[in-house]
Amino acid sequence: MMTRLSSISIFPLLLLFIATGCRSDFSDTEIDELPNITEAPEFQFTNFDGSTITNTDLKGSVYIAYFFFTSCGGPCPLMNSNANVLQAEYAEALDFRIVGFSVDPERDSVERLAKYADRYSAIQGRWYMLRNSREIVAALASSGYLMGDASNPALHSTRFALVDRSGMIRGYYDGTDPAKMDELRAAIDFLLSKEGA
Q: How far is CA 6 from each of CA 2, 3, 9, 145, rounded to the nearest angstrom?
């Protein structure tokens, strides 16, 4: 009986912890080095606020890049929710960015992306949701970020690519897997630290 009461009284505290979006400091994941995979691609896309964003705007920042579309009923909501959590967790890291590329530009107009960005509380200048032609984004995914075929929106990658301050891709992490998200946090911490600079 005591055990049951103890677990019941702890449950609201766990809910409170989860609801506040606090990072778990209980992860044993530590990074002492990351591979240099390849240089991140050059690009020029339109952001959800109508501005033009290029890869040079991200130089000097650590960022994650991923592919999504606003009408996705599969992994995209979870990926964007996880990106929202990262935005909150790294709010004080002024050189951390999030970059999402729409794989469905025919539907994902600037206006639609703006509503979607608002849904996930994307902060302008910190989190970009970008669009360009289907051909350009498909080439960016497959040849640029090496994240598979984005010509069919339903088949886009669920990974986050992690890019360092110099524009080098340093790793890939499944944006739907909690364990891989913890690995991503450790890698971000490493790149934001002096050791990973």
A: 6, 5, 5, 49
